[in-house]
Amino acid sequence: MHAETATDRKAAALAAFKDLPHEPGVAKPDPILVVDNVVRRFGGLTAVDVGHVEVQRGSITALIGPNGAGKTTFFNQLTGFDTADSGEWTFNGRKMNGVPAHKVARAGMVRTFQLTKALSRLTVLENMRLGAQGQKGENFWRALIPGSWRGQEDQITARADELLARFKLDAKREDFAGSLSGGQRKLLEMARALMVEPELVMLDEPMAGVNPALTQSLLGHVKDLREQGMSVLFVEHDMDMVRDISDWVIVMAQGAVIAEGPPDTIMSDQRVIDAYLGAHHDAPLSESELEEQLHEAEEALEAEIQEESK
Amino acid sequence: MNWDIILSTTLKAAIGVETVWYALAAIGINIHFGYTGLLNFGQSAFLAVAGYGLAVTVTVIGLPFWIGIGVGLVAAVLLAFLLGIPTLRLRADYLAIVTIAAAEIVRLIFRSVEFKSVFGGSDGRRGFSQGFYEINPYAEGTYGFWPLSFNEREMWVLTVGWVLIAIACLIVFLLMKSPWGRVLKAIREDEDAVRSLGKNVFSYKMQSLILGGVLGCLGGFVYGLATGSVQPDIFGTETTFFAYTIVILGGAARVFGPVVGASIFWVLLVLVNGLLSGAVQSGVITFMDITQVGPFRFLLVGLGLILLLVYRPQGIFGDKRELAINAR
Amino acid sequence: MKIVVTTESGQPVQEVTSNAQGTWEVPIEEPGQYKVTLDAATLPQNMAIRGGNNQRAPTVYEGNPTTVLFALQAKAADGAAAPDEGGGSAFWQRAAQLTFEGFNLGLIIALAALGLSLIYGTTGLTNFAHGELVTLGALLAYLVNVPFGLHIVPAAVIAVMLAGGIGYAQDRFFWGQLRRRGTGIIAAMIVSIGVALFMRYLFLILFGGETQAYAQYNAQAGLQLGPISATPKNLISMGIELIVLIAVGFALLRTRTGKAARAVADNPALAASSGINVDRIIRIIWTGGGAIAALAGVMLGLSQNLKFTMGQELLLLIFAGVTLGGLGTAFGALIGSIIVGLFIQVSTLWIPPELKNVGALAVLILVLLFRPQGILGRRERIG
Amino acid sequence: GGGSDTASQSTPSSAAPSSAAPAAEGDGTLTLGTLLPQTGSLAFLGPPEFAGVDLAVKEINEAGGVLGKDVVKIHTDSGDTTTNIASQSVDNLLAQKADAIIGAASSSVSETVIDKITGAGVIQFSPANTSDTFTTIADKGLYFRTSPPDKLQGRVLGDLIVADGNATVAIMAMQDSYGTGLADQVVKTVQDGGAEVVERVDYDPKAADFAADIAKIKAKNPAGIVLIGFEETAKVINELVKQGLPADKHKWYMVDGNTSNTNYVDMPKGTLKGVKGTIPGAASPEDFQKKLLEVDGDLEDFSYAPESYDAANLIALAAEAAKSDSGTAIAAKLAEVSKGGEKCDSFPTCVELLKAGKDIDYDGVSGPVEFNDAGDPAVATIGIYEYGDDNKYGTKAVEYRTGNIEG
Amino acid sequence: MNAVPESKAAVTDRSDHLSGAENAVLRCDELIAGYLPGVNILNGSDLYVGDGELIGIIGPNGAGKSTLLKAMFGLVDIRSGTVTLKGEDITNMKAHQLVSRGVGYVPQTNNVFPSLTIEENLEMGAFQAPAKFKERFEFVCELFPALKERRKQRAGSLSGGERQMVAMARALMTEPSVLLLDEPSAGLSPKLQDLVFLQAQQINKAGVTIIMVEQNARRCLQICHRGYVLDQGRNAYTGTGRQLADDPKVIELYLGTLARA
Ligand SMILES: Nc1ncnc2c1ncn2[C@@H]1O[C@H](COP(=O)(O)OP(=O)(O)OP(=O)(O)O)[C@@H](O)[C@H]1O
Ligand SMILES: Nc1ncnc2c1ncn2[C@@H]1O[C@H](COP(=O)(O)OP(=O)(O)OP(=O)(O)O)[C@@H](O)[C@H]1O
Ligand SMILES: [Mg+2]
Ligand SMILES: [Mg+2]
């Protein structure tokens, strides 16, 4: 049964994208997030200048682009962590500009941080529990009466344990989050965001630094999220991952959206290759290519040495 | 050396009035700093507004004692709002300085000639404690057993004080085990992360500031009632510093840390003094005279503090592992 | 002039006429309140009673004489000429003087703040013993100046060097060891409170509780420069302070060691990985910080005399200055401190001097409301 | 205040010996505790006060002690109000069965411990408190003080200022009960006398500097400037000279807290020439100061040493008179030995008279010291001194004025 | 977590592995190290790298890869075992001393000075050889042109990838003889990842010995001479890059099949 719905959802998502033109700012049939004219400048630098972009509900959308393209800054604007110079956006039809970060999260739009924010002196489990919404025990007066929140806490713990097992953090359950390795922090960051049970989860490079074998198993989980009706918007530089799970890809460069489309189309788009992917993105280096590469390198080196000896 | 007296004064210090009110102030700081990470260096202002709230209400306005207590509590809550609204957005170290500044402003106003008619200038106010001692259940007499003895007034203040400490500790214990406490601790670690998880950080910080302020301000009442007076200078930065020292000594973010810390602090202060003056009087120490005992005591207390923190940086109850996590 | 003395109820006691010096005397039987009236008609021509009132009501106490004064002034002076009625110009003159004083005080605070800021910046230590380092400098200079009898200028130089050495030793044998043990910055902060107590009371034991002054330049007379009175020592001190502040500020921004200091502040482990000898840099900073604090102490001592609590009493203002300017930035400390100094002094134009610190501290809070990172501080990016 | 207001006690506790420390019954040895500043912002006042007590106790014991036994003294630290040391020190003194405690110097500190001390049936005797509060405080008749009588000093000083012909007067007063109390009295006298107080600045003695305060005074260009404070006056003078208000253009007046022969000697010659200061006490302080220096050679300031000395002597005499060393018994005799009887001015002579069964009237170094019902001194002598070219005041007062403090 | 399953024997046994270590530039023997008292993260790992070799270290998250690099670089307390650099025992030597011996290091996280500008960051990279700064600066700016335009921007405001560039560039400022890289390609765009791998190879060719920790494991194994698979603080597998990349066990446990082989 599970498998069936899985294919259904994926099919639905793909169907929604099928007839869309591959151009920046294209309107989606059922957008969960609609962004208009968001601009953010730092001094003379325009970090973000997005004209119009929509994110389809129930889909997995990738946001890619060169380093410094403004992806993270864009996330910051949308989630209320930074104030945009201008622009407006709606989430589920609700205006979200100027809404403080915690309200954005409560509305169902949750983000993770590229530079992880582990709550160091809380255990991994406590980190997870914190993510849960609508906790009775988070009210001052109820907190004083343990009976009033114990039951809910147990449910939350069960859910947290489930996620931890999935993210291979169950062994670290009782350790301080501050003692996790770089990759483990990434995992915790993402798992914690999922505890919120958001409608739209925005992941900022969730898999950078995560072991490939684990990445692979986690992709299954992300797909599951889609099956549960969640929408996912993620930033990633790992093209294998983008290709594998995304239904739609949005490309940013120098603050603006420069292309949109399904993964395959995007990855063969010359502009995207030039700006972002580079020559070797696609094929793994074959033996001969490797040789050639090294050869080139040697020549360059030679030249350099000659230069130096002059 | 008179060991009896050294022992009895030391024991008395371990549970005495100073220990009580410093412990209360420190419990408040523990909530602010230990659990929430708010470097509130203006704790003495909470004690001050509570003490003065009570004193001014009773002596200047002439209202009954209980209303004075109410006014003191309300004043502490108001101060928390006044202090919190502008400052809670600040980074920890900025917050520290701003709260010191705010506390100094409060103290300077209380001690000013300008407002002498209300706050009594540098001499402060007295004569507001009758209401408290009128309900003293202890009959006149001396209580306790060797080497401790208290008169009925001290007994009454101490009873109330320790009951307040017990209640405060219970509240802290319950809260910090709860999800509410978890949010505070998370804010201490990284407030942006907490925000991203849908918690209203400002509101929690404010709740923490109010709770810690109100628990701390009880110390102001105890001080005022025990000495029968309030003076502006006791509510200076020194008091806050000592309260911080107490928190760290006991171990930050530990329920009983402040209480044990306060005991240790005062025991240290009194014991050092007892030993020193004993040694000087009996001629064991000859390199200083008796009037230098005072400064020497503080010098040794400073040294003791240093050594304690060098050899047990996590405090008495603290967890060394926690310390290792955030060490730079 | 004729003077009439009556009892409170108006019973006449005596009438006298003043002698050539203008004095007079009336013997009185009973203590109590009396009325003394000067007959205005008997005044010399062109003279009037200051304030116009020709009646006084002194209380006479048993066994003690009581004096009554009728100050006279030229009649023509009725209008604007009275000294205290200069109104506007007096206000501006005072404002100018206070502005000068603001810079004077601000620069001393800045100098002390610079040392604090350097040490905070590189080690993260909120050093509550910094006030005592200031005191230390002042007292060292006193030691060389008064008991040894050296002139204050060489004494100051020696004191600053000694204090630098002590700063070095402090890190070498104390703070450095703590760092090695992995003492956290909060624990270190509390340790610094312990150090402050230790040093302060050591000073009390060795130096005593009294206020002292250096042998030279004590109570130096002021020069009148336009609307401002200033002593030569003030002017020279301010010059030295400004030079030191700017030199150190630029050193931090421009020299390799300065940059390394900021790198250590940011991330000591990474600094070490870049080949920076972190301990060495921190030691340089401690040496410099100690020396600068000492210089601040000498300057403070020159303008305000010496006491074992002198640094402690300045500490809050130092912190305020550092914070206002933006923590960890040298020029921030300078600007912040001068603002603090200015507000302390200039605010007394409107508020009673006893509350002058209130003005400065309130400004600190206000500024941080609008610039939470301090004037020159920068906000970190999120995410 | 002291004397007879036990009845007005409103708290349920009382001085009934049952509740008090054992000392209240007396154990035959007069134990004098001191609660004086060894640390804190008033630490500079400590040494002279301790020396005053030490000198007195030394003389008493040389004269055979009290009730045939040597007087025992226990020194403790009162700190200042920023720390709560005083309370612990009192615990310590009470535990050691002190019969009387000399202290504290600061009115504020005294207020925090008065309940504790008097509640234990022990005398609290301050050499330096000037706050009005103590006149009416509930103290079971156990609080006394020899502190300089503000009212009289203020009156004498105020009259002096008027007599010198100062039509306009500015006052720089240290902002505490000593400074403001004295300043209030000066203002009143000066105004009654027909001169105008053009400016009054209450300053915080801990302030970083006094430039603003002086600037405020300068703006009014007063003929006379009154400096009320302690040793920080040296800083104030620095500032006065700097801003162009020197003593040769404006007349300066000082009070007992800052009329000092040591604080200003380093200043340029003539800085204080002609400055007048008032000091309570009928004799020039010089001789007494010499004796003090024998006790403590490091003394630089002598503030409140006479008052401390007198306090110790009075307690000892009262104990002799009461033939008991219990606090309450001594308190009952204190007023008696201070006035009405044969005058004497040192413990040995007084105690001789007492032993001869005579009524005595102790006249101390700080003044005639006659206690009123509130335990406050009722009569005082104020000496007026004038500074010379060497920035020291003459050994002989220009004038002495004795009067009832209340008038 | 430290209970290493004994059954999972390393592919090579210790003496076998170390037989090639005769002339190693840098070698670690039976390192035991950790952060918290009583908890060892490294449980006796061995590693050697010969002159001019490029070594890859891969493994699951939390295996102790970064810890191993930090231990070699004197940033973690070594509890037992030794680290040797060109025959000299450098166990627990301070980082800056290693830098002067020609070792360079790029940490995985916190790898820039946030309040310094990019230029100053790079200047710190050349701290011990200020004379070379200009020339090296030009060199790294050529590699990462983005840095040059931004030279006056504070590193704290940079994007994740830009920081990574700065970190890499900082290490390249010194021309070290041994370079320790902790996930140099993380967070970089595919184009720049290529560049980093290429650059590593190129530097290596020029004679620099490199130890590289990577989660981009396949790419890493492709370019390195030898690889180590670290698991739970021990070497689980060693071999040449090819051997490891083709080992089905390694693929299953550590490499995954997502990237097209
Ligand atoms: N606070 C700031 N001040 C100045 N410049 C900033 C600030 N924040 C971001 N920038 C600049 O804005 C640009 C966009 O940064 P952003 O972090 O959004 O990039 P990104 O697309 O997430 O890159 P990456 O893939 O490397 O994470 C960068 O060039 C960065 O240097
Ligand atoms: N500062 C620290 N304090 C305590 N434990 C730590 C610390 N850093 C890492 N650890 C623990 O050491 C183990 C190894 O961490 P390390 O960073 O070496 O892993 P890693 O192999 O580099 O992983 P990743 O690929 O995720 O970066 C982890 O289990 C982690 O929990
Ligand atoms: Mg980014
Ligand atoms: Mg790692």
UniProtKB/TrEMBL annotation, chain A:
The keyword Nucleotide-binding applies. CDD domains: ABC_Mj1267_LivG_branched. Residues 299-310 have a biased composition (Acidic residues). Pfam families: ABC_tran (PF00005), BCA_ABC_TP_C (PF12399). It comes from Nonomuraea ferruginea. Gene3D superfamilies: P-loop containing nucleotide triphosphate hydrolases. Residues 285-310 are annotated as: Disordered. This is ABC transporter ATP-binding protein. It comes from the Bacteria.
TrEMBL record, chain B:
It holds the Pfam family BPD_transp_2. CDD domains: TM_PBP1_LivM_like. Keywords: Cell membrane, Membrane, Transmembrane, Transmembrane helix. It is a multi-pass membrane protein. InterPro entries: ABC_transp_permease, LivM-like. The chain crosses the membrane at residues 20-38, 45-61, 67-85, 155-176, 209-229, 241-257, 264-288, 294-311. It is found in: Cell membrane. Its main location: membrane. This is Branched-chain amino acid ABC transporter permease. It comes from Nonomuraea ferruginea. The lineage of its organism: Bacteria, Bacillati, Actinomycetota, Actinomycetes, Streptosporangiales.
From TrEMBL, chain C:
This is Branched-chain amino acid ABC transporter permease. It comes from Nonomuraea ferruginea. It is found in: Cell membrane. Its main location: membrane. The lineage of its organism: Bacteria, Bacillati, Actinomycetota, Actinomycetes, Streptosporangiales. CDD domains: TM_PBP1_LivH_like. The chain crosses the membrane at residues 102-120, 140-164, 185-207, 235-253, 284-302, 314-346. Belongs to the binding-protein-dependent transport system permease family. LivHM subfamily. The keyword Nuclease does not apply. Keywords: Amino-acid transport, Cell inner membrane, Cell membrane, Membrane, Transmembrane, Transmembrane helix, Transport. It is a multi-pass membrane protein. PANTHER family: BRANCHED-CHAIN AMINO ACID TRANSPORT SYSTEM PERMEASE PROTEIN LIVH, HIGH-AFFINITY BRANCHED-CHAIN AMINO ACID TRANSPORT SYSTEM PERMEASE PROTEIN LIVH.
TrEMBL record, chain E:
This is ABC transporter ATP-binding protein. It comes from Nonomuraea ferruginea. Belongs to the ABC transporter superfamily. SMART domains: AAA. Gene3D superfamilies: P-loop containing nucleotide triphosphate hydrolases. Residues 26-257 form the ABC transporter domain. Keywords: Amino-acid transport, ATP-binding, Nucleotide-binding, Transport. GO terms for molecular function: ATP binding. PROSITE patterns: ABC_TRANSPORTER_1 (PS00211), ABC_TRANSPORTER_2 (PS50893). InterPro entries: AAA+_ATPase (IPR003593), ABC_transporter-like_ATP-bd (IPR003439), ABC_transporter-like_CS (IPR017871), BCAA_Transport_ATP-bd_LivF (IPR052156), P-loop_NTPase (IPR027417).
